[in-house]
């Protein structure tokens, strides 16, 4: 049953849902009579904004409780979600389950955090949500953000920071998948900030932010939040409709979104451990994620697993496995990373995806110290004048077939040096793991140019995808970056490579492919 204040809109919504029934229901009206008439098994409040539910914020939950109906909501208000526990004794006595925050935060975030911190004593947690710029943020979400913009938000014991002003740069990068570009995330006032210290008393810092695009529009929101912080404006709520309209008409960037949950803590031996869980949603599938937790609770009920009676935040309601079917339906990719400085370079960058590569590829990238490999290669060179000049300047190998190939790899904790010889051509590059805004990327310095690349597992192949570049240490426009299909694979017990380099203004520079043993 789909209920709303406007029955015509509810009916229009139900046309694409064969078994759905529209209802006219006002949360501020006579809920008791409607619930007594229809007797639903479960009542879901997805309206909001929960920050503005007034003097009686739990009237919907109480109406369900009075009728013996289980309740859940998609609330994102820190005070609302934490406060649902005030109904716990009454709900237990009535045998009714009241769950709040059955959404991305805190249901999904806590499920991810429990997975990566199961054997740790957490000291700090960072959570970032990066919606696609084409996702279409709802007006109620904008109103919620506007309500607390510029106001202090707790981020640790006796510490606070201003909402939409305090910021961090994070990278969302599931192992073996194409990561999102680094984004600036701004602090948001969400339920996790109140619930994390309750769940893990050892926690010294907790930070949750949103990395919205376009970046310029986010900067404008931060500037407006400063006006509230400096008490030049009482609130940004009057500007919510204007900002919402702007977000709907100013959109550019990738049709991708994501999420990251990171924890630093101590293991049983007292060692510091850093782990993170990453999610990337392609093709603007991210807006489905906030409702997946509620759908997972429904599926649990259909399988006979009704939530335990009581009123509480949904921090323990679901596990990551409950979300897996919904992620699979939408092509959403997830994965876990752990910082291990002593591991080989490519294993550090790829994380668990490294173990899924063919054995010859794994072996080559697991070498320590200095190793020499040899094989054969075929080289193609671009024919354009500019391409030939650049190729000669950086001493690329000349065109030829079945040429002798030799690679010397010098591996150390700081990175790797690759010296390549194909035919008469010799070239050298330095590889290292990226950090900061280049985290989880491979950084290769080649003469005066430095490339940042994502290592992406494509079935049985390892692909190199350019994500940015610098010249003489200066960031350069991405549209001028070298491109081309570059990948590694196995053929039997041999390691095979296929490297293509194209320049936007010169066409094909070179392509060399072959094998090493």
Could you give a quick summary of the protein structure above?
Helices cover 27% and strands 35% of the residues. The chain is α+β, with helices and mostly antiparallel strands. Helix 6 packs across helix 11 (289-302), helix 7 crosses helix 10 and helix 11 crosses helix 12 (320-329).
Descriptive labels:
7-stranded mixed sheet; alpha+beta
Written account of the structure:
The structure is a single chain. Helix 6 (104-116) packs across helix 11 (289-302) and helix 7 (139-148) packs across helix 10. The protein has 15 helices and 26 strands. The strands form five sheets. Strands 16-17-18-19-20-21-22-24-25-26 form a ten-stranded antiparallel barrel. Strands 9-10-11-6-12-13-15 form a seven-stranded mixed beta sheet. It is α+β, with helices and mostly antiparallel strands and 517 residues long.
